[in-house]
């Protein structure tokens, strides 16, 4: 095929490494990215006038961040780079891209989706109060804006990011009031053997924990979060049940919450990719082969948007998916390189399985949420309303529950309530979460201005 | 820049959301009357921090860098919606 | 779980608004009924349409049916026990050109003979009554007793009420074949066979294959409505809004719910496939739709689209539904092909079909919708 039209969505570690491989093979991909600069969320670059060094910004990951940024910058004009551009729909081998208020359709022969992930959250009474943010948000505030989300912060949830963000806050002079982890010490030990697939990463984690302890940051495990306390103006504490079952309150001015990650899989859905339920992470993910080929012939997937394996794995997956694309386009691939990348992916997968075991998604909390808890932030739909769509109205699965209750119908399209909704519906149906189905994606992936201009600049 | 009519000092490189949190403490109100909202994800995903400009344009506060002379509103400017009497 | 009912007075193929409301009204008349739905009730045309409870602009001979249906809409909460968000807020069609004034005036006169009250409003009157309307509108045709409802809720509400009253509603049940065996119909499904002396085909876009199997082919095509919804906005568009135009590209409709979202559709239909469970919104159509939306309500330039959808609707070549007895096979009835405007008439169709099946006649004229307009049929069996 002469000059295949290749589009990569996402300029994070996966998109960057994929573009690099394609450019090395003499191709010229178009990279569509929502950010104003490359790096994705994990290696998000601060605004141009920001003077903090890579070391200050990315800590132990500075070398990797520097390398990914340098790799992207080195691509220069050998790619067509479209920053600040939202991929809002996909249909019939065309990607609809929005920049400002102008939208155009980009036809492709091959598409690589590397849109990354967002925080996985479990709703909590009071979680919509100003001052309650996702863990990712807490980290972005620090990295990209140089400020904390509050003076006295409680971090709650589970997963490696919980400890990393707490550590970063401590280092930046904002020692957290506490770290409340829903997983137990025993669960964390049970993940160790698998996490040993990447001894370096495991060691980093152990060091983080030690540093938090030395810094005097209380770390409580096996907690059950009950409420973000406060009033209309903000947060003034958290209420939780500790490992002994006693109810406790802790004063704070901000909360950072998150339970590991949730794949940004809407574009894969709109492209028509098939999904499967991954029991290890308790999420529906787009199906891929070992190379990153989706169920659609010309759609490839890499990074946390396809499998939640982390930033290092995203680089590997980006390279592999590019190799798959090249092979499918008739370019010869070096079998040894591919085999080496696939071995690395296996290590990442093992490690991620350990992480999932050590920091499990506390799905049972969904069933415990009081009826008055807002589940869908956008549409202000409560757990009780969602449950009633099952029990009173007879919705047998989550899309029907959405149709009845409006959960997941708002501006964010179920990004932040979708996984919890599936759990609540499953609990109300007294069934397994995979039987409750998967919220289907609907364009636009993010809100689209009605005052929209076409390619010709006309509305 | 101004926020809800008041002049505020901001740092170059800050986002509109950072400016709002420093000076106003929130970004807007839930359209369904359940209180103030101030964003949640800071990465353009949760759509919880859409604000208004004085001209009636909309900005997602967490993904909009501040610019000189911005006129940011936590509520829609008056007169945008011709509500029948 | 009890053994499912395998035999009933009536088996209905298709659990859309027509199938579910027919089942409900058949139970009111004491007949036993089973509804077989391929996916979930109301999932296609019945659940994905715009939600217009509009009589204005309908093909005139359909108005008696629409009037009967409007009366049911007014009682729908009491009948079904569910709030389906029915709001009789009125329906206005704006005019962009002087030529249309004669058209809407003639329609108003004729509709009046069917008891439909319409008012033609001039340039100033529409601005006073509907301050959101754009500067191009020169007049409006106002139907004060029409309105809108939430299509996602209506068919399930009828299904629940029918089930409450003793109907069997079987979801996720693919009908493989319908045959007449002796006096009975045999309806084969992946979950076993059902038998009944009466079968009603209410399978929407999928109905043509079933009618053809009885030697009554019809020109029915699948099409997908192109629907979108904005973020919540202050409640400023109270009526359902449409356009009176002879130009297809100008056909647009919108409504706002009190929660604030503005729902719109129109301009063109997308393709839909009978083989797929979902029809998809075509993002290419967004520019043309937005242009027309902004002609109706320019303030919407401040708003954002948050979601789009489509579904599978069945369109007849002549845009007139197929409704009534087969006329060829005794005990076989049809109610399909509502061509993208069957939501308002749905409850009325259910009531009429139940009356026809139970009594052999109907007090509402439906002869214009008979399948015999496509030739053959009518002579081999007695209607009803």
From TrEMBL, chain A:
Q: Which UniProt keywords apply?
A: Oxidoreductase
Q: Does the keyword Oxidoreductase apply?
A: yes
User: Which residue range or ranges hold the BFD-like [2Fe-2S]-binding domain?
Assistant: 374-426
Which SUPFAM superfamilies does UniProt cross-reference here? Answer: FAD/NAD(P)-binding domain
Q: Which Pfam families match?
A: Fer2_BFD, Pyr_redox_2
GO: which molecular function terms?
oxidoreductase activity
| Domain of life the protein comes from | Bacteria
FAD/NAD(P)-binding domain boundaries: 5-307
- Any idea what this protein is called? FAD-dependent oxidoreductase
The organism named in the record is: Acuticoccus mangrovi
TrEMBL record, chain C:
**PROSITE patterns, from UniProt?**
PROKAR_LIPOPROTEIN
This protein's GO CC annotations: cytoplasm
- SUPFAM superfamilies noted in UniProt: FAD/NAD(P)-binding domain
Under Pfam families, the record lists: DAO
What UniProt keywords are attached to this protein's entry?
Oxidoreductase
Identify the residues that the record assigns to the FAD dependent oxidoreductase domain, covering every copy: 9-356
The molecular function terms of the Gene Ontology recorded here are: oxidoreductase activity
Where on the tree of life does the source sit, at the highest rank?
A: Bacteria
Question: What protein name is recorded for this chain?
Answer: FAD-binding oxidoreductase
Q: Please give the organism.
A: Acuticoccus mangrovi
